[in-house]
Design goal:
The complex is a heterodimer of chains A (229) and B (189). Chain A contains nine helices and no strands. With 229 residues, chain A is mostly helical. The longest helix of chain A is centred in the first third of the chain and has 27 residues. Among the domains of chain B are: 81 residues, no CATH class; 47 residues, no CATH class. The chains are: A mainly alpha (229), B mainly alpha (189). The complex binds zinc ion.
Chain lengths: 229, 189
Amino acid sequence: MATETTRDADTRVAIDVKAAQAAGRLDAARERYAELVERHQRRAARIAYHYLRDSADADEAVQDAFVKAYTHLGTFREELPFEVWFTRILINGCLDRIKAKRRRERWIARPTMDADGVERDPAEHLPALTPSPEAQLLHNERRRRLKEAMVQLPERQRLVFVLSHFEGRTSREVSAVTGLNESTVRVHLFRAVRRLRSLLAPGSEHEDTGDASGTGTTVVKGRVRHASC
Amino acid sequence: MRLADAVLRRGHLSERALIDVWTTGIHPAHLDRCDQCARRALEMSRWLENVQATGREDAEAVVTNDVLVRQRDQVMSRLAQLDRPSKVISFPAASPVTRQPYAGRRVSPGWLAAAAAAGLMIGVVSMELSHMLPFGGTSAPPQVVTAPAASPYDDSDLLHNTYVNPSVGGLDALDDMTPRVVDIVLASR
Ligand SMILES: [Zn+2]
């Protein structure tokens, strides 16, 4: 998670932004807030992308999270690292998007199918966020399979796996962001690994039909604990 | 060593213990004694490393610098829109329209004054009548609905930014009926 220096810097900026907002110096508030955006944007974009598995959705989720954090900065408490507070906002936004998508998919055919009924990578047909040509070349079979496997994880397992494994957070840090206790975080991580190993095992493609603990149809039961807004 | 590992696996490490080796860095003593578990731990850590590298590579391919710059611009422009004060509709101080010759029918100021006086009389008389009629005084007082104190930032705008395209369709009819000051000024000349 944030080093002491980064955390202090974030807090200082957040306090400055709040003060500028309160004084009506909104241009100054935004200018200062841009520092927070720049510092946390890349990580936020990665988390949202891993979590939502759709680059356009992830882009919107990140934008919304930064806008929401700015407009609710008055509720930010300095004893909490900005990064933790902001990540909660981001994750709650992602959860809302997943829920909304599920509701839509009850009525609308999946847009990720092409004319031949073959599932396409959602990132492929989103011009704004498509990878560079070089990156597309590297977009190999392994990445496709991992993405498909990730989406089959229940939300909490996926969230814990993304934060722990892709973002390198400790169980304690994941616990702070998600509101789950540390032992639950470790259980989710273990289950996610076990499930992914099964999904990614050679020859397992298209064979896995899921089980009680790991189907992709798990309903999102709750939001990440209070995002303070 | 966990009790379950000792009892159920004859001392060999569970899959979870192998994952913990990688995620926590804690190195159980059993790994130094058992080649089989050492091999399993190595295989597990390689798998985890591969998945991590693949996942990070995938995200990095999508989250490019260009994407981040564009995204940052969009965030800042949305914030600027939210911070923009509500527009106050001001009447033009010296509209060029008033200097143009008006082609329509001219109405003398005297007629305007007479019309205003007649309107006032009708209003006073109808108010008096409403008090005298039986249903006039029994009607419930109008409910005053006060809007909650508005936050400078409205949550509903977070996902659907209505500042971009404000819609006031419900007020269009009222707007049509309201005379323009410009028209009245022109008419009185
Ligand atoms: Zn062993």
